[in-house]
Amino acid sequence: MDFTSTKTITLTDFIFAEQRKHEGASGTFSNVLLSIALATKIVSRGVNRAGMTQMIGAAGSTNVQGEEVQKLDVYADKVFATTLGRSGEFMAMVSEEREDMFAARMGDSSSEYVIAFDPLDGSSNIDVNVSIGTIFGVYRRLPETEGSSKSNLADFQQPGTEQVAAGYTIYGSSTMFVFTTGDGVNGFTLYPTIGEFILTHRNMQIPDSGSIYSCNEAYFSKWSKGIQQYLKNCKSGDLGNGHTKVSMRYVGSLVADFHRTLLKGGIFLYPGDSKNPNGKLRLLYECAPLAFVVEQAGGRASNGSQRIMELVPEDIHQRTPLYIGSKHNVEAVEASIAEHD
Ligand code: AHM
Ligand code: MG
Fold first, then answer.
1. How far is the CA of 280 from the centre of ligand 1 (A)?
2. For a Cys-Cys bond, which of 98, 226, 305, 328 suits 341, CB 3.0-4.6 Å?
3. Does 239 score more than 70 pLDDT?
4. Whose CA is nearest to atom 6 of ligand 1?
């Protein structure tokens, strides 16, 4: 990377250039994005050093979902809560790691935003050196709660369409921060030597169709006829989009599977089954943010019959089935569900 080139755009350059496009912008929204980027840089540092700092392994407790909490989960949650709290831009936060919504330390009645995040997704992959990620979605507080000095659950009970920013960071072979504010999707790669994210993936677009499907096929027998039939079609070379060469890829880290799907096209599926009709993934801080990103990149995200972006969370930890990726692939699985289920 040529840091002396006038063409090099840092995340900070990018955010302030966007701010200048909005006359009278106060800078609070820029601060929202910069504080998320800072938190994610700190987590990236922690992830990269985990093997050397005894941060690998279980923390010895379970979270609200009953899943074993890893030491890095606890660290990432703390980094996000304190870093975003210090920014003063958030009234309240929701984290996968905490049962209840919590007030941001420095949030006051003038804080305009709330944020939901999964500080470290895919934690079962930490110990085996496989990519993990962070996911976040930002909402503006509702007009009726703005000005109140109390956090309000209603601020989180908005459909994904109301997100003002959403994205993820992938801690992979490099660390990438990918986000949207409703005006396309841009990806930034972390250059650790200067501690900055640099714009490397401008205006990301997902192919309209792709040849890769991604799911945990060990659950095949538990899935509905519609899903089973769709997967049989995939294996026989028919993903509903004219592709003949079909591949299956599954990392088991949503961010990594999603990132590949965004870049190469295809579909990621996490269906419900008879025991868990809503699947595993959480609407507010996993599915809705990625749905915003994929739609902004020209793709589609569905629960099988409805747009993920239109679902309203009743509960902050609510789960939903997820079919996300290239438009034609997601339409094909929706058609199979409509026909067989
Ligand atoms: P987590 O939030 O506890 O890390 O769980 C979410 C992860 C996702 O990253 C991934 O897509 C999914 O769980 C994998 O689940 P499974 O092991 O059932 O395939
Ligand atoms: Mg998660």
1. 7
2. 226
3. no
4. 122
CB count within 10 Å of CB 102 equals 15
Tell how far the Cα of 118 is from the centroid of ligand 2, in angstroms.
5
Could you say which architecture CATH assigns to the domain 212-340? 3-Layer(aba) Sandwich (3.40)
In this structure, which CATH number among 3.10.105.10, 3.30.540.10, 3.30.200.210, 3.40.50.300 belongs to the domain 11-201?
Answer: 3.30.540.10
Q: Does the pTM exceed 0.90?
A: yes
* pLDDT per position as a tens digit, 291-323: 999 999 999 999 999 999 999 999 999 999 999
Cα gap 39→214, rounded to integer Å: 29
| 105 C-alpha to ligand 2 centroid (Å) | 23
- Is residue 278 within 8 A of residue 299, CB to CB? The reply is no
SS3 call for 60:
strand
pLDDT in tens, 264-297: 999 999 999 989 999 999 999 999 999 999 999 9
Residue 252 Cβ < 6 Å to ligand 1: yes
Closest residue by Cα to residue 90 from 111, 120, 76: 111
